[in-house]
Amino acid sequence: MSDKPTVSVLGTGIMGAAMARNLCRAGLDVRVWNRTREKAEPLAADGARVAATPAEAVEGADVVLTMLYDGRTVLDTLREAAPALRPGTVWAQCTTAGTDLVGDLAAFARQHGLVFYDAPVLGTRQPAEAGQLTVLAAGPQEGRATLAPVFGAVGAKTVWTGDDGASGSASRLKLVANSWVLAATAATGEVLALARALGVDPQGFFDLIEGGPLDMGYLRAKAALVLDGKLSPASFAVTTAEKDARLIVQAGEHGGVRLDVAAAAAERFARAAAQGHADEDMAAAYFASFDEKGA
Fold this sequence. Notes:
Elements: E1 6-10, H1 14-25, E2 29-33, E3 49-50, H2 54-58, E4 63-66, H3 71-81, E5 90-93, H4 102-111, E6 115-118, E7 121-122, H5 125-129, E8 133-138, H6 144-154, E9 155-162, H7 169-198, H8 202-209, H9 217-227, H10 238-254, H11 260-277
Parallel strand pairs: 1-2, 1-4, 2-3, 4-5, 5-6, 8-9
Antiparallel strand pairs: 7-8
Helix pairs in contact: 3-4, 7-9, 7-10, 7-11, 10-11
């Protein structure tokens, strides 16, 4: 293998497409696959080879990178790819899959002789497109040199959480980080909804907290998407946010803690999706404060 590994990217949604494009820009040989082929085809213009099946995408790859909807989708896709997977292939599992399925994914890797890395990423559309994601990774030392140009192309930094991907240490850290992100998103929507209900200009609230410990760039960014009506294209979609919120609640239950805010956020995202905002930015959880007519 050269110092520029051949990389197969399975899943070219918001995040996967941006990551694949940056891998191409870094000069790597990139193959891409997506269940809906139309989402993968634009990457051909960036130099990626668009595959018809997961098996075709992974054939001869040094690194397989999965960025799909959830852990079950990852497992189903890798099973389709299994006939073409080579023992010794490095697998960077970047999907936010929660904690329950990491063991199953690692077991699949052992069964097929893959070098498994639990490697979710922190960031949304804009940092993904800029190659500025933070990669949270756990896995053995032996494959890290192979992964270095891959993680270097998609991220600004890599945070190593351990040497055993099967432990799920990276996925656990990702859920903790996402619990804060989703709570802040839900709170932003409620602040704007309450301001509307009370006839308060949101700018008055922003002026009130400006420069103090309650001020936050994330709050202002998400609020602007709602106030300016710029919820599409999504940086992180409502449906994905709901999925992640439910993974967080589930992980908390298994750890013996009750996460009321995460549970409420999941329901807000579900209501917003039901109102027709499923594919919009997760800031559209704002609309869950109103019935459909009011929204």
